[in-house]
Structures are given as C-alpha cells and as structure tokens.
C-alpha cells in the first residue's frame, strides 16, 4: 500500500499500474468533503515519490463513483468572503491539474454516479471508461452555482461548447449512451466487464496507441473558435439559455458567460475566471435558497425513511375508493410504482373514468418513449376495477377518495372498515375535513389517518400524511411507506382545518380578495405574483383549482379560524361562484378558456368578469408592486409561522418543502421561511405594521416577535 486514509487508498499492481481508489469510510457514497480533498492532496504527494509507474486507474470502492462535493459543508460558504470562496476552489483545482499533468496516462473508471466534482475529476484524467449502468453530470446550476473545479473549462474543450452548455445549464444526468455519443467518455462497458475494459484502455494509452498529449493539450488550450465564430455561437447560446432559465435563475447564463470569457485562455487562467464566477454565484440569495432546498429535501427524505423503518409490514396491495380523475390518478401512480391496487366505485361510469385517466397517462409515457406497450399493459392489469368489496380483506391500505362531503365520507369509511382486515390502514384523501371528525365513524380510529394527494396526482410530488388524535404510529409509518413506494414526498402533519398546505394557502387567497375589494385589477395582481416567481397568479390558480372548490375550502377555513380567515365582505371568488363561473372546469372563471391545438385550456381576458366585480369592489386603481407582494405574502408567512409554533408541522424545513411541492412556491426563494430570513424579520415586521389595518392575518405571531427581539433567523 503506497497511501491509505479513511477516504483514499493508493496501491500498486504487478504491472506498474497504480490504482487510486476512493472509498469514504462511514458513508454509503463517495463525496468530496474536507477529508477527501485533503486525502487527495496527500495521495498525489505520495504518487509523486513513486518510480517506475506506467499508468494510473482512478476507481471507486463503492457502488457509485463520486457524487460530488459534500453539500452539507456548503452552508458555511455563504458567510465566507469572495476570496475565501475562490481559495476553496483553488485547492481542488490544483489537485486536478496535478492529476492531469502526471507523467503517465490516467483512466477514470466510472462504475456509478459521477456527478459534479465526481465528473470533474474524471475530466482531469486522460481517459474515461463508463459502466452502462452509470450516470454522469454537472448539476451545480440546480443549486444556484456553477461547476467550480474545472467543469466549465475542460468539458467544452472535450465535447464542444454547445453540448457542454446544455449539460451544465440543465444539470441533467447523462446516461452512458449519451456520454459516449457526446464524446465525454471514451468507452462504455457492462458492469462486469468495466475493470477489464478500463485496463485494456490504459494499456493502449501506455503503448502509445492513443494520443494522450493531444488530449491534454486540448484541455489546456483556448477553445478552437475564431472571433466571428465565437460571437455568433455565444450570442445564440446566451439567448436560448436566458429564455429557458428565466431571470430568477442566474447560474445557467453565468455558465455561458464564464466559458465565453475564458475561451481564449489556457487552463490556469480559465480556471481563475471559473472560480470568480463560482464565488459570485455562491454569494447570491438564490444559491443559498437552492442549496437550502437540497438540504431540506435530504432531511425530508431521511425523516420519511425513518418512518418507513417503523412500519411493521410492507404495503404489498392497496385499494382506492372512488374512481374518477383523482381515484384514477392514485391507482395509476400506485400500479406504476409496483403496488397492485383495487379501484372501487359505486357506478361503472366512475370506473370507466378512472381507467380512462390511467390509460391516458400511460399512453402518454409510451408515446414519449418512456415505457413499452407491454409494460403499459402490465401496469393496467395491476389496476383491478370493482363495484364490490370483494378481496378488500387482503389489502394493506385503503385510500378513500370520494366526494368532499362529510356525511358521504362518514358512511363510506364506516362501511369500508367492515370489509378490511383488522390491521389494515384506512386513509382519507380529504383536503379539508377534520381527520378527528372522520374518525368518529370508525371502530378502529388508531388505524385511520389522512393521505392528502395533490392534483394532478402523477405530477404533484407532495402527500400530506395527517395524524388524528387517535392515529397510531403504525398507521403513520405504513402510510408514509406507501407514499415512498409511490415516489411521493411525504410530510407528516397534525390535524387542523386545512391541515398544512390549504391552511396556509387560503390566507394568501384572502390577501388577493382584499386587494381586489380595494380596487386592484386581478390581472395586475396575477402578473406581479408570477413575476415574483409563482407559476400562476392567485386568480389563475383559483380557476385551475376550481372556484367551487375554493369557495368550499374558504368556508372551512373561515369556520376554523374566524378571527383571521372570515371575510366581512363578499369576495371576488364568491361572486364568480354565484355566477356559475367555476374556472377551467366549465370554461369560465376569472378568465375564460378555450382549447388550443394541443387540447390544453388557454386563458383569455373576460370583460364580463370586470362587470360582475364592479358592484363589490372599489374604483379600480394601480397598486405598487411591493404593496401587492406584501399584502399577498404576509398572511401566508404569519399562518405558516403559526403552524410551526403550534406543532402542526415538525420544522421550518418541512413546511417550506410542503409549499414548494404542494403549490409551487418559487424554488429560487427557498421557501417562505428562507425568504423571510433573506429579507429579514425586521422588514416583515415593518410591513406587518403598515398593513395592520387589514386584520389579524397581518399580525406577527408571538414566535415571530420573539425571534425578532432575539435577532434569530429560521435557518
């Protein structure tokens, strides 16, 4: 053994070949944490002292290669100076340059995921051999930053600017087939043949059959573009990337700017340009937000896995009550992810609708090449439509998804409980009705909880798992395990009107109602909030959710929290409802809808909406953008703070992710609590005082006041 640490070993093979193996002790994956970076420096130092070396293999002792930098260490970076951040990049860049300049050929053996820094070390090697089961990529822009260890320099010089920009701007994982087609790797091999192919490739390089010096020269030289070619290429690329990324995500366009600025430079100067771009992005609120979301997502996944481990048995068979669009969506998702499911309805028409929904979603996957026709048939066969309870005694969980009516749900749940095994979990997909209230109809309330999916089921990641007063840990554990099997993000919350997401969403809608009451143009409010980052403004969102659904839920919220959610005026949404303007479902709401060529509803402005609103609103006037944002967001902020303070949700991180995955809160802002941290609670308090006349929803909570007084933040 030439060198050994808890991250890297360096050993010699009999034929003058050395192997540098990454195998980070105590971790399931390899990553570049401080230990690994230091170990790489020491391993290279040891390598420099060796003689009679013919070549080097860079390998992994784990099922993945290297997944990238240790993101948990990134948070400290946001408080560092630009100089300190550049020094962070510089040390690793020095290592990779040493690796690139070794006096013998090097081959990276990519056996699994090589992401971010994991791919960048491979790019520093002369040759790359990749398993057909592996994935590579540079996902840094998804974290609001850019590759900081030579990715923007070496990749364009290996595969060309256009392809390299697309890899980095999208941050997508690339398959072995895509990687070799692009020229990012030199060979691919089946996993069991990977080492042999890598060794053969290295021997070919040692024998002079491969132009190693030419490869090194290309990576260290300016890009082969003259001024005219460069001007045309970068103008086109920047226009395309700016359009796709949007103004709220600066990292993708910065990637292009860094490559362009360094196009005429050699390796070391180009790395300095990259390092400066990396440091600039690392100091932005967007990077802090995106890295924060990544870490929150890791926490959420760990929490969900923790619940799954507590489950006393796996969910092998499921059932859904109520077919239709929602039931069909649940059945589709369950079967797609490998859990056979019964789909029960009281009428054949309902079953037909549910099966049609599943069939439509599967057919779309087939048409896009994401599934074979045979696989589609298999998934459909695992959905068992039925008008009876036959076979329900063998299912592990039943999800009730019938009409949102308390009496109907009481009756259906009580009846279903008689047909399932004593230890089966019964869950309701209700979006507003109290779990404790629904449990009153049951003999085994300990086996009952909420399992609230968001529509459309196949597209929305979030599932709220709602604990009632009598719900057992076992029921929660099994339900979270089922959500995990379905590929969903499960957030466990306690019972209250609206649970978490709807409880927080409706104060936001109330802010909209008060703005329109006071003379704001609903279109103007939509535009401001969409530019702020929401996927759709409040009026448009109301139409998509369904005006009738919104009115019903608003009534539940007003009854549950009358001090701040009961309106003392007729709202715009109620006016739409009274005039049978239900939104997209009947083609008219705040907007009117016609189908485009692709069969999707396209919104158009309706003069009738303004005529209907005129009697209940003040004379129309223009509101300042910042006032619209404050009046919309403050009620959401204070209500979410209450949910954390009351223990409805376990943490600020889970709350932020619930809004991200449930209603599309702007990712680049990192979540409500992250946003409040970025603007400062002092600013939130100032806005609260300014709009205190609008009611209790605009008042800071006791917990918010305490944090403000103590100078604390949520993260």
Structural write-up:
With 715 residues, the protein is α/β, with parallel strands linked by helices. It has three domains: 3-283, 2-enoyl-CoA Hydratase, Chain A, domain 1 (Alpha-Beta Complex); 314-495, Rossmann fold, CATH 3.40.50.720; 502-710, N-(1-d-carboxylethyl)-l-norvaline Dehydrogenase, domain 2, CATH 1.10.1040.50. The strands form four sheets. Strands 13-12-11-14-15-16-17-18 form an eight-stranded mixed β-sheet, sandwiched between helices. Strand 1 (3-4) and strand 2 (8-12) form a beta hairpin. Helix 20 crosses helix 26. The radius of gyration is 29 Å and the shape is globular. The two termini are 44 Å apart. The mean pLDDT is 95.
């Amino acid at each position: 053994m030439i060198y050994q640490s808890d991250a890297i070993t360096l050993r010699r093979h009999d034929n003058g070949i050395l192997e540098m193996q990454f195998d980070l002790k105590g971790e399931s994956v390899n990553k570049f944490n401080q230990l690994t970076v230091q170990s790489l420096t020491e391993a290279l130092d040891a390598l420099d002292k060796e003689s009679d070396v013919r070549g080097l293999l860079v390998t992994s002792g784990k099922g993945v290669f290297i997944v990238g930098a240790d993101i948990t260490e990134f948070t400290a970076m946001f408080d560092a100076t630009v100089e300190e951040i550049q020094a962070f990049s510089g040390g690793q860049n020095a290592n990779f340059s040493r690796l690139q300049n070794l006096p013998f050929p090097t081959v990276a053996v990519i056996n699994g995921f090589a992401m971010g820094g994991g791919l960048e070390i491979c790019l520093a090697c002369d040759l790359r051999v990749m398993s057909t089961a592996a994935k590579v990529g540079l996902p840094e822009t998804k974290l609001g930053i850019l590759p900081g260890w030579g990715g923007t320099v070496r990749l364009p010089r290996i595969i060309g600017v256009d392809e390299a920009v697309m890899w980095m701007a999208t941050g997508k994982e690339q398959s072995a087939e895509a990687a070799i087609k692009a020229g990012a790797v030199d060979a691919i091999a089946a996993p069991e043949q990977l080492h042999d192919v890598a060794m053969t490739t290295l021997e070919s390089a040692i024998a002079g059959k491969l132009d190693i010096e030419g490869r090194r020269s290309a990576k260290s030289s300016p890009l082969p573009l003259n001024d005219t070619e460069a001007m045309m290429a970068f103008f086109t690329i920047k226009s395309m990337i700016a359009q796709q990324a949007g103004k709220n995500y600066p990292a993708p366009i910065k990637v292009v700017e860094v490559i362009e600025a360094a196009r005429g430079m050699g390796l070391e100067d180009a790395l300095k340009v990259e390092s400066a771009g990396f440091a600039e992005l690392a100091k932005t609120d967007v990077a802090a937000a995106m890295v924060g979301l990544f870490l929150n997502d890791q926490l959420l996944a760990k929490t969900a896995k923790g619940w799954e481990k507590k489950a006393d048995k796996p969910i092998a068979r499921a059932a859904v009550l109520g077919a239709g669009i929602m039931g069909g969506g649940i059945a589709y998702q369950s079967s797609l992810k490998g859990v056979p499911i019964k789909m029960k309805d009281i009428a054949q028409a309902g079953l037909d609708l549910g099966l049609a929904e599943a069939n439509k979603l599967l057919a779309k996957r087939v048409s896009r090449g994401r599934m074979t026709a045979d696989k589609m048939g298999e998934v459909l066969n695992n959905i068992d439509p039925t008008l009876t309870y036959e076979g329900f005694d063998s299912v592990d969980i039943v999800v009730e998804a019938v009409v949102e009516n308390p009496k109907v749900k009481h009756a259906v749940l009580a009846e279903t409980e008689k047909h399932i095994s004593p230890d089966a979990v019964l869950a309701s997909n209700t979006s507003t009705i109290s779990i404790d209230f629904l449990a009153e109809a049951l003999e085994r309330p300990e086996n009952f909880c909420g399992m609230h999916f968001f529509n459309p089921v196949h597209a929305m990641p979030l599932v709220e798992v709602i604990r009632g007063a009598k719900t057992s840990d076992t029921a929660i554990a099994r339900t979270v395990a089922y959500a995990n099997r379905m590929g969903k993000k499960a957030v466990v919350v306690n019972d209250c009107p609206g649970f978490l997401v709807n409880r927080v969403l409706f104060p936001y809608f109330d802010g909209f109602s008060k703005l329109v009451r006071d003379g704001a143009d609903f279109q103007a409010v939509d535009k401001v909030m969409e530019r702020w980052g929401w996927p759709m403004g409040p009026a448009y969102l109301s139409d998509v959710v369904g005006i009738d659904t919104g009115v019903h839920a608003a009534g539940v919220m007003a009854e549950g929290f009358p001090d701040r959610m009961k309106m003392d005026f007729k709202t715009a949404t109620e006016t739409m409802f009274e005039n049978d303007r239900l939104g997209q479902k009947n083609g008219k709401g705040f907007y009117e809808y016609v189908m485009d060529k692709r069969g999707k509803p396209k919104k158009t402005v309706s003069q009738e909406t303004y005529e209907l609103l005129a009697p209940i609103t003040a004379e129309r006037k223009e509101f300042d953008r910042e006032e619209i944002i404050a009046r919309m967001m403050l009620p959401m902020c204070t209500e979410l703070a209450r949910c954390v303070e009351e223990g409805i949700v376990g943490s600020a991180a889970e709350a932020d992710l619930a809004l991200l995955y449930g209603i599309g809160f702007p990712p680049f802002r990192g979540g409500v609590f992250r946003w409040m941290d970025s603007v400062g609670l002092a600013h939130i308090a100032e806005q609260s005082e300014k709009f205190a006349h609008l009611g209790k929803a605009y008042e800071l909570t006791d917990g918010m006041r305490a944090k403000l007084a103590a100078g604390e933040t949520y993260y």
